[in-house]
Amino acid sequence: MTEANSREDLAEKASDFLLGVLERMGISADIDIKEDTDKTVLEIQTGDTELVIGRRGVVIDALQHLVNKAVFKEKRDEKTKPIVVDAGGFRDKQVERLRGIAQKMGEKALQTKQIVELQPMSPHDRRIVHMAISEIPGLTTRSEGEGEDRHILVVPAAAE
């Protein structure tokens, strides 16, 4: 079996698993599989987009976690691309929203010359914010806290 066939099989397996979970949730949907160089995206097409995403993305994050656990349970040692579950363009909108927060809080830190503390967020979301703020001269970031309470501090050079 070629590597491309193996990836396609994984994407199909992931899609079938996701459809099964959505069906059990009472959500009728179709799934489009999109292969990128660094990830496989399962785009859920449904009239119940809000249910699939959930409040602050918790449902779609849980679905993505389940899909990756189910598909990769025996494929740990192989080089595999992560599977991203998306619906209604939520992932792109989330990145834009987080970059906007980073910009706004970065400006606040620079103006006040004070450390700005952000709300707790997931590791993935924190990474996006860290990267966005790293592009702003005069600012650094660090994460603080444990588990669900882990959050970012935006630190202006004047406050270090």
Task: Tell me the number of structural domains.
Answer: 2
Residue fraction in strands:
15-25%
Number of contiguous helices:
5
Number of strand elements = 6
Question: How does CATH name the architecture of the largest domain?
Answer: 2-Layer Sandwich
Low-confidence blocks of residues = none
Category by helix and strand content: alpha+beta
Q: What would your notes on this structure say?
A:
This protein has 160 residues and is an alpha+beta fold. The protein folds into two domains: 3-88, 2-Layer Sandwich (GMP Synthetase, Chain A, domain 3); 93-159, Ribosomal Protein S8, Chain: A, domain 1 (2-Layer Sandwich). The chain contains five helices and six strands. It has helices at 3-24, 49-53, 58-72, 90-112, 123-134, and strands spanning 30-35, 40-45, 83-87, 116-117, 139-144, 151-156. The strands form two sheets. A three-stranded mixed sheet has the order 1-2-3. A three-stranded antiparallel sheet has the order 4-6-5. A hairpin with a 4-residue loop joins strand 1 and strand 2 (40-45). Helix 1 (3-24) packs across helix 3 (58-72) and helix 4 crosses helix 5. The longest helix has 23 residues, at 90-112. The protein starts with a helix and ends with a strand. The model has no long low-confidence stretch (mean pLDDT 90).
Outline of the structure:
Helices cover 48% and strands 19% of the residues.
